[in-house]
Amino acid sequence: QVQLVESGGGLVQPGGSLRLSCAASESISSIYIMAWYRQAPGKQRELVAAIYSDDTIDHTASVTGRFAMSRDNAKNTMYLQINNLKPEDTAVYYCNAGERSLTTARDRGSWGQGTQVTVSS
Fold first, then answer.
1. How far apart (Å, rounded) are the C-alpha atoms in residues 39 and 48?
2. Tens place of pLDDT for every residue, the chain, 121 residues?
3. Could you give the C-alpha distances from 75 to 25, 57, 94, 100, 103, in angstroms and in order?
4. Residue among 80, 97, 85 nearest 28 (CA)
5. CA-CA distance, 3 to 117, in Å (whole number)?
6. CA-wise closest residue to 50 among 120, 83, 99
């Protein structure tokens, strides 16, 4: 399975921005689904955005307009640009990669170790 490593998290003030990266150990151009999830303290992991091999991108409604997912196949890296950060965005952000469907990717695919995003003044 592909190995994934997230980076780019940190402590940021409300209204600030971050760009998270997820570097893959192999080519991502043919991976069917790559996705960003987040898990806030005491809450379940939730889907934030997903990109498919045909470059279709879906963002969860709660983050549309503030979050933008992209990928650079040449660098085997996907990104999550987060703007206008809010305290409720505080969470560990994970990247996920897999095949067939979001469910299959989530249950059987590869996961990174996560990167912490903390939004606080």
1. 10
2. 899 999 999 999 999 999 999 999 999 988 899 999 999 999 999 999 999 989 899 988 888 899 999 999 999 999 999 999 999 999 999 999 999 888 999 999 999 999 999 999 9
3. 10, 18, 19, 23, 26
4. 97
5. 21
6. 99
